[in-house]
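Office hours follow-up: a student asked to see two folded examples consecutively, so here they are.
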Amino acid sequence: MKIRNILSFVVMASVILFTSCDNKDDNDTPPVTVNETYPTNNTAGVSRNAVISATFSEPMDASTITTSSFIVKQGTTDVSGSVNYSGNVATFTPSNNLSAGEIYTATITEDVKNLAGKAIAADMVWNFTTGGTLTTLDAVNLGASANYVILAKTAINNSSTSTIIGDLGLSPAATSYVTGLALTNATGYATSAQITGKVYAADMADPTPVNLTTAVENMITAYNDAAGRPSPDFIELATGNIGGKTLSPGLYKWTSSVTIPSSITISGTASDVWIFQIAGDLNMSAGINMTLEGGAQAKNIFWQVAGEATFGTTSHFEGNLLSMTGITLQTGATMTGRALAQTAVILDGSSVTKPQ
């Protein structure tokens, strides 16, 4: 009898255990959650070219992550964009730049499911505010450095025959560090058949040395002004490869180098201002054009480059270039703007025209 009772107990316990496992429901599995978002909730000063993202706690069913289940709004207005999913991360890339100084709301809805078909517990909603300038940027004040189309501290070197429209300045280096331009000396300045304008150097007659000292000081002040402008509209745009882009007015910031491997357009009105802050080098490939559109003017475009600025053969550049390290225009490269370098400017059969 005891053996029979023991067997009955074992059978009953097994049935209970099997039934318990068989009836286990989704409530016993960890919930599907969003572990991380970019931007994080209530972040301010978000770049206007930001890509919004959500990182899930486990792999998800990519077919459930769409523009219907990953939504971004500015107020009640939907933001158009594309949605992608890879490696537990869903991204929303806006079709156009976000507006400056606006509050945006991102939502991941309960329509998003994991690979087992289980939905997130509730809508995930977060807010962020864009940075940037709400009014037109103030132009960088070039001071007396604006009087020169090329201004350098250590040398101005030219190969082949260049065409330069505007004055050149060199200080504290002397006239002998202006090479390849076949200068004809005069009192306080020099001329060249390659230049529509005059050449000034630190060892020329007064008041040239004082004027150049002021211009170089103003150039450095302008560089620091451009580098120090706060609240960028666009941060790390295209991770520094801006080829093929159309650049709207605003303040741009990169913490590394910028390359231009294909032609770009700078689009805006005659009163708009562009400031590009580049912590590394600026490299423009051979044969590439920079085109102005909509009335944009080279005099209102400022490139602050901490490294070297190099323009490939027959490329064309627009704007005021403020370089801490050096500027090189390779064979046949052209510029409408100013080359303002805290070291040397190197030309090779180049064309440089001071903006109006």
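And the second, which I mentioned at the end of office hours:
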Amino acid sequence: MSHPRIVGLSGSLSAISRTRALLDGIIGQIRTGSDAAARIIDVAELGAALGPLRSREQAPPELEAAFRAVETADLLLVASPTYKGSYSGLFKHFIDFVDYKALVGRPVGLIATGGSDRHALVVEHQLRPLFAFFVARTLPTALFVPDRAIVDGKVDDPLLCQRIDQLVEEARLVLPARALAA
């Protein structure tokens, strides 16, 4: 029997970022006490191959593997920094190649970071509608974490930590039962 698969998709344009650190930490919390396997797909690492891509048929093997990982995840967590009130363009370019039928009913956790609270609705106005198009099952709790709340790769705001804990609990509830330790 295979282990449930958690896939994180980081939409940051930087290989080292607050968004990626936040995603790593949340996936680590979800995996605590489970046998779930995890993989993070970072668009920053795929950018050279992803940027010029015009059709999925032209995708090199590493991109095709990333698309398939997203499409077959038992739980997908997406995280993007916010630019001008929306997710990153490279994140959207990646998503444009995901099979629109592959995410039907798939649980998806929504996470965004940003420089100011003016971007706080990005998860509700941009990410949730994007995954509604795919008929994915977005988790009820979505996160927006301002950059100032991430210190040394960890969230230092107690209220945000409570929201993270809520998202983690919701994510754990949707993992297949075999993932949870007895």
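Two things to take away from it. Residues 5-177 form a domain with the Rossmann fold fold (CATH 3.40.50.360). Confidence is low (pLDDT under 50) at residues 178-182.
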